Each structure stands twice: as C-alpha cells, then as structure tokens.
Amino acid sequence: MERAAFGERFAYNWAAGMAGLGLFTATVVVSEQPRLFPLAAVAVVLALSSRFRRRALHDAGHPRRALEDERDRAFLARGDRGFRTAASLWMVGIAFALATGPVREPLLAQPARLPGLLVLGVVVANVVGHLRVAGAYRRDRA
Asked: How many whole angstroms separate alpha carbon 2 and alpha carbon 104?
C-alpha cells in the first residue's frame, strides 16, 4: 500500500485538530457564559496555524527530496476555495441570524457569544479546507 503524501497526512491531522478546536470553541466560547480568554486562545491558534504547516513541511523534508510540487499547490488551492466558500456561507448565515429578531436576542445576550461564533466559523472553514485537500489527495491516489 502506498504511503500517503505529506500534504494528505497533514490535511487529515489538521482537520482532526481543527475539529477539536471547533468543539472547544463551541462548548467554551459559545456557551451560556462565554469568556474572553478562551476566545483569545482560539484566535492565537488560528493565527499561528499557517506557520505550523511550514514548520511541519520543513521538519519532514530531506535534503534531496522535494515535498511539494505543482500538484500539491493545486490541491492546496482547492482547499483554499473550500475554506473561502465555507467561511462566506457561515458569515451570511450569521448575518441572516442577526437580521431575525428571535434569533438575534440570544446571539447578543452575552458579550463574547457573537465573536465566538465568528471565530467558530473560521474554525469550521479550516476543517472544510483541510478535508478538501485530503480528499483531493485521496482521489489522486485512487
């Protein structure tokens, strides 16, 4: 059986990691009593996530072996499109929720709930993007 490419392994690992971060965000940040510190912690992890990929790529590299090529960049572009689509849909959903009276009240009841939902949308979009990349690798291998 062929070993999965670095990009596929990274995408699956980060999809799982982001799903865990999303669960944390949903339970701690967007809860009955949302708090600011967990929201800030999630924001820091999201801000550093692109550096984690570069670091993992550097650590996995061998002196005479290229780990990414044009195919990998095309797969990453698919993931980026998936991320942008999911993030856009999430934000449109939040906009509609804020435009609806009965839904707006619970969203604005706690000061950190709405920012938590916005950050949760970025986390969900990251999961979608990583799964798109992993799926592209899997289809290419088949």
From this structure: 51
Provide the pLDDT for residue 19. Answer: 93
Q: Is 64 helix (H, G, I), strand (E, B) or coil?
A: coil
Q: 3-state SS of the chain: helix, strand, coil percent to 5?
A: 80, 0, 15
The whole-number mean pLDDT for each consecutive block of 10 residues of the chain, a chain of 142 residues, reads 75 91 88 78 85 69 62 89 96 94 86 88 94 92 77
Helix 113-141 and helix 101-109, axial crossing angle in degrees, nearest 10? 100
Q: Which stretches of 10-130 are assigned E, i.e. beta strand?
A: none
pTM of the model: 0.83
DSSP string, 35-64: -HHHHHHHHHHHHHHHHHHHHHHHHH-BTT
Q: Which two tokens stand for residue 31?
A: 């809860």
The Cα–Cα gap between 35 and 82 comes to: 30
Q: Judge whether 137 and 8 are in contact, CB under 8 Å.
A: yes
Q: How far apart are CA 40 and CA 62, in angstroms?
A: 36
Please state, in angstroms and rounded to a whole number, the distance separating the CA atoms of residues 37 and 85: 28
Other CB atoms within 10 Å distance of the CB of residue 2 = 5
